[in-house]
Design brief:
The complex is a heterodimer of chains A (107) and B (122). Chain A is an all-beta fold. Chain A has no helices and 11 strands. In chain A, the strands form 2 sheets. In chain A, strands 2, 4, 5, 6, 9, 10 and 11 form a 7-stranded mixed β-sheet that branches. A 4-stranded antiparallel β-sheet of chain A has the order 1-3-8-7, with no helix packed on it. With 122 residues, chain B is mainly β. In chain B, 0% of the residues lie in helices and 48% in strands. Chain B contains no helices and 11 strands. The termini of chain B are far apart. The chains are: A mainly beta (107), B mainly beta (122). Chains A and B meet through strand 5, strand 9 and strand 10 of A and strand 5 of B.
Chain lengths: 107, 122
């Protein structure tokens, strides 16, 4: 099974800062990596699919990059409403694996 | 508006059974594969099961394989998860999730329900 290692587990930054989360796969997963946002008490929401494609309606301050085994997710200008936990997810044929999550807080 | 509404959660005893339902609206249910994803309190996300748009193909994650059955009724736009031999560690919020296409091998979850909480405890 492919393991997904997400880091950091939490971060705190100021409004307007750029923050980056990384996700490393135990094997080459090509481009099959998605990113979700889960606000407190809410269901997860798709932000980025296939490593770099922005889901419809998602603000452009969110972006993703990477391929193979190393991926990153960036919020270019952190906003108060971005307080949430962010998860990466690998999908391969039928199975899928989530990273452990990164909790993002505003200083 | 796409909506996915889960029901059927609650308190169950270890070894017991529950059936979850997910009623959907706002899209053509029979065009989309569906998944169940769970989240234990304060923990991350874990896939449970998946079913193709026509119900002809299913997939079960190791976490609950042999103890759950996923099914769907396209005439009622409803997804189900039959759970048996429940364990304390199955305590979680169970989300109904849509994928954008009909097959199982599609890469991302584009809509999620709010989830229904199952608590397994004696």
């Amino acid at each position: 099974d492919i393991q997904m290692t997400q880091s950091p587990s939490s971060l705190s930054a100021s409004v307007g800062d750029s923050v980056t989360i990384t996700c490393q796969a135990s094997h080459d997963i090509k481009k099959y990596l998605n990113w979700y946002q889960q606000r407190p008490g809410k269901a997860p929401k798709l932000l980025i699919y296939d490593a770099l494609h922005l889901e419809r309606g998602v603000p452009s301050r969110f972006s993703g990059s990477g391929s193979g085994a190393h991926f990153s997710f960036t919020i270019s200008s952190l906003q108060p409403e971005d307080t949430a936990t962010y998860y990466c997810q690998h999908y391969d044929s039928f199975s899928n694996t989530f990273g452990q999550g990164t909790k993002v807080e505003i200083k | 508006e796409v909506q996915l509404v889960e029901s059927g959660g609650g308190l169950a005893q270890p070894g017991g059974s529950l059936r979850l339902s997910c009623s959907v609206s706002g899209f053509s249910f029979d065009h989309h594969a569906m998944h169940w994803v769970r989240q234990a309190p304060g923990r991350g996300l874990q896939s449970v099961a998946a079913i193709s748009n026509d119900g002809g193909s299913t997939y079960y994650a190791d976490s609950m394989r042999g103890r759950v059955t996923i099914s769907r009724d396209n005439s009622r736009s409803t997804l189900y998860l039959q759970m048996t031999s429940l364990r304390v560690e199955d305590t979680a919020v169970y989300h109904c999730v849509r994928v954008p296409d009909g097959g199982l091998a599609v890469g991302y979850f584009d809509y999620w329900g709010q989830g229904t909480l199952i608590t397994v405890s004696s």
